[in-house]
Write a structure and sequence with these properties.
11-stranded mixed sheet, alpha/beta, single chain
Length: about 425
Amino acid sequence: MQDPKSIDIADFDYDLPDGRIARYPLSERDQAKLLCYREGSISDRQFVNLPELLPEGSMLIANRTRVIHARLRFQLSNERWIEIFCLEPLNPVDHQLSLSSRKPVRWACMIGGNRRWKSGQTTMHIERPDQAPIDLHIERIQRLEGGSFSVDFRWSDTSLSWGEVLMLIGQIPLPPYLGRDAEASDRDRYQTVFAKQEGSVAAPTAGLHFTPRVLEQLKAKNCLWTELVLHVGAGTFKPVSSDTLAGHEMHREYIELSIETLRQIHHQLQGEKPIICVGTTSLRSLESCYHLGRLARAGQLKIEDQEENPVVKLGQWTAIEASLPKLTPVDAIAHLIGFVEQHEMDMLRAHTQLIITPGIPPAIADGIITNFHQPRSTLLLIIAAMTGGHWKNIYQHALESDYRFLSYGDSSLLWKS
């Protein structure tokens, strides 16, 4: 097996014409095209046909994260514009606690036009119909690793939570490759119909095609619907800029799975029934669980000391750590459940930097429902890992068959090779 660190990202490039990028979603979510790949065979369907393509008793695992209005734009006294992109909470570090807080919060943020912002402090005056205006005080604290900054936010109306303030003044942070500002319709269409838990700065876009109709048809076919949380970070859009993966630092994302969800996954694995991930975020979460189970079996899984909630960590290259035991998926999840029970937690919370690469097929997922991803991206590496390297044939077929690409584009159902 090739050392994943030596993988040349140039081997995962392809020509994506600008006209193939979907700037807007279709009027009906489930009318998107669906490319189906299995054992070298490719066929074309519609997403509304998905339930009939899945074996009875399959488990679908979806990401219920909800996109926050993370982009703030304001004008300085010199009339120059600044943009603050809220990435993740620093104090409190828990997404839910931060977004529900009525006290000042601190976030890691990207700042567009930072050099224009000499003082690092400003106040946004927010008018509200039939209500008193709000003053939002913003202060840049210090530069962080990776080029972001810590930024403090406090607001005058403490009857509002930080999440409610963002809803009032922020914008949905559409991916930069869409090349447009968010519009009113994006508030709904850039969320899945099952989105519940706020914290992402990008949508788990594979889930955007699901409708209540499709979910009902899945239920009628006795397919199990299970949810987890991975708060998608801005790093998901970051292409690999180094020649090989050894020079790429994988972005960190936060995941949550209830112990009941872990037990459901374990039961599905024991019964040798299919598990299909809705999107790369769900697959990254499941693979992280597999390797966390390996760490637990080796006695190397540790809890970070956090005031709010206990959190564990997973490194970028854990998948190829030779000192860790090779476990079956059933055993790995069993050890992870044991770890969660031992520490009397009802929820697994983790920060994962795991990178999924070709040559190491996903341990748990049998299939993935996903959109078509950017060239030279870590998401494309996941597709290559899932399909045994057949991604070029799949993408060439999609390009020749007028599929729409990226976040608002069409979908695919890919079975593990």
